[in-house]
Amino acid sequence: MASACELRVRDGASEMERETSAYVEHMNNLLVEDEILVEAKKIPIAEPMSLFKECRDGVLLNHVINAIKPNTVDARKIQRSVSVSKVNVNGTKDAWEISANHNLALEGAKNLGVKVVNVGAGDLMEGNRPLVLGLVWQLVRAHLFSDISVDTHPELIRLLNKGESLRHLIDLPSEELLLRWFNYHLRRSGEALSVANFTKSVRSGEAYAVLMRQIAPKLVPENLVEQVRAAAAAAAAAAAAVAADAEGEATVAAGSGLAAGASDSGNESSKENGGDGARDPATAPPSQRPPPPTARPTAAHALVLEAAAKLGCRKFVTATDIANGHSRLNLAFSATLFNAHIGIRLPTEEEIAAMFELIEQLRARIAELERLLAASEAQSAERQNDLAAARAELATLRTAHAAQLARLAGEREVEVGEYKRQLAELRRTLSSVTHENDALRGDADEQAQLSARKMGQLAGAVEGHMEQLRDAVEEYGARGDLLGGPEPLARTVAALRHDATAGGDYDAALRAHAGALDGVLAAQAGRNEAQRAAHERLKREQGRMAEEMAALIAAQLGQELAESERRDELGQLNGLLAQLLGRFRDQEAELARLREEKARKDHMMEIMTQKVKEIAEELKDEEEGAGPCARCGRGGKQKSRLFSMFNKQ
Questions:
Q1: Per residue in 97-150, pLDDT tens?
Q2: Is the pLDDT of residue 11 over 60?
């Protein structure tokens, strides 16, 4: 029996042969204790390709279904004494009974969740290989996936994603749950690996090596991953060298064929344009392209299979299947690893109690942080109110200041207008005074000229009279000594006046001229005095105007000084506002820091809550605290106590 359960197939076999061999091996192991089939020599199946013949009577398929899930098919209805060779023999019921067996099998497969679309009893009776192989695969898959569920393995709650509900995890299809389990162990390994499917993602074998190191670290070599990577790198280098050699040979061959091809260039051109010449596979239609080459297995894949054998899981796949990413067989191999070494355990009651205690501490800390955050928010709100009040006050001050500036600007414009008017008036007055002064100066000059002319005339008249007087003195002789010596004119005039008074009428004209001269001199002196008085008045008026201009300038400077003081006051208010804004920004920064701290604590709380669901830590001993075994039923009490505690929380 043992030898039947260890059926192997060579890597060089066809894909159908490898797939059939894998399913036959699984069926042999599944039905190894079925006495009816063993006695009938239907089990073990020694030749894998005979599977299709063994399935034609429907007996084997019904037994497989009941082995997966007992009593799915009513065993009393299975017709075991039938022979496919008698189907066409007249007078026998074998054809009807075989058809009934197949209908039982198809109905039972439906009850297992298997899709049996386009498969009928006739197809199974005829041994249609693709349809039979597809049905067998679905039965094998149903058996492998029967225990891949949260109900069977509560420890799979550790696969919950952040924010995901337990109901969603329970409702996941088994294949997706298996993929999530695979990636869970890859993440825990610390390697930058993940699998998105059971084809391309597993071709290198590296993901399988990391998975087996995680789920069974005691059974596989410690350096398995490094060995697989080294073997894969060596295989890649060898393949690259072979490709380079092949490319070089192709280049040489192409060069040697240039001469021969030159003469046939016309023929080649005609062939490329629709002749019978060879077509480049890359440009050929899909229907004419050759099938893609099969990837060759490497030492890395052999190392993976050796490690799987140490885990008791070298089933379904060959090195070729891994290298080519056979979806069905790699899926079955991954399910075999899951069922044999899940690598996840439930936490103990002590670990759960410790986690709940830690959660309570975190909740208390979060409550304290929330209290601090609320106090900080209240303080921030108060400061925001103060800032709003300060802003309102500043806005009021700005409005009042703007109004005051507008009023002062208006008053200044009025005052400046008045100053301009007064200045224009003063300028007109100064112009008038200057004009009057110029006129007075002209009159004074004219009078001075007139006086000079009159003095000249008078001097001439006096000189004439003196000549006459000399003549008269000479004529009379008695008074000649009166003119002796250099006597002044006044004395002479006085003497003349005396002589005129004493001497008679002959010098009446001289006296008249002398009197006129005194009057002219007196009038000229009066005019000169009037001009000096007018000049003094002009100086005083100019001094008064200068004082008024100085007063206007002083007033203007005073206004500018007042405006400068008001600008300084506005600058102080702006500085106060800047200080208030700075304080407000500091408070906002503190509030943001507290919020970030709360978010971090919330994140820690979420992580710890998830850890309660997922499990505290990974222990290396897979059997300690494990869930109830599907066969022996051990560990059920611990799981029930665990779920009761989890539900209470």
A1: 999 999 999 999 999 999 888 899 889 988 899 999 999 999 999 999 999 999
A2: no
Amino acid at 164: E
Count CA atoms within 13 Å of residue 629 on its CB side.
Answer: 9
Give phi and psi for 164, each to the nearest 5: -95, 140
Q: How many CB atoms lie within 10 A of CB 638?
A: 16
What span, in angstroms and rounded, lies between the C-alpha atoms of 141 and 137?
Answer: 6
Among residues 612, 556, 526, which one has the least CA distance to residue 166? Answer: 612
Angle at 621 between CA 615 and CA 624, to 5 degrees: 70
286 pLDDT more than 70: no
CA 119 from centroid of its chain's CA atoms: 55
Q: What token pair was written down for 631?
A: 């066969």
Give per-residue pLDDT as tens, 321-377.
999 999 999 999 999 999 999 999 887 788 788 878 888 898 999 999 999 999 989
Tokens 């498969």 belong to 119
Q: For residue 290, count other CB atoms closer than 10 A to its CB.
A: 7
212 near 307, Cβ under 8 Å? yes
Q: How far apart are CA 544 and CA 244, in angstroms?
A: 114
Q: Nearest Cα to 156, choosing from 166, 143, 144, 141?
A: 166
Query: Which residue is listed with tokens 């109110």?
Result: 385
Element (H, E) at 442: helix 349-476
Amino acid found at 418: E
> What phi-psi label fits residue 10: left (phi over 0), alpha (psi between -120 and 50 degrees) or beta?
beta
What 8-state DSSP symbol labels residue 505?
Answer: G
- Nearest CA to 333 out of 10, 614, 18, 4 is that of 18
pTM, full prediction: 0.52
The CA–CA distances, whole Å, from 273 to 7, 254, 280, 286, 523 equal: 54, 21, 13, 19, 141
For the four alpha carbons of 441, 442, 443 and 448, in that order, the dihedral sign comes to positive
CA triple 347-348-351, angle to 5 deg = 80
Of 511, 518, 501, nearest in space to 465 by CA: 511
> Residue 640 above 50 pLDDT?
no
Task: Output b/e per residue, 107-137; b: 16+ Cβ within 10 A.
Answer: ebbeebebebeebebebbbeebeebbbbbbb
Determine the straight-line distance between the first and last CA of the chain, rounded to whole angstroms.
50
Amino acid (one-letter) located at 582: G
Bond prior to 628 in cis (omega within 30° of 0): no
What's the token pair of residue 585? 């920004």
The greatest distance separating any two alpha carbons of the chain, rounded to the nearest whole angstrom, comes to 220
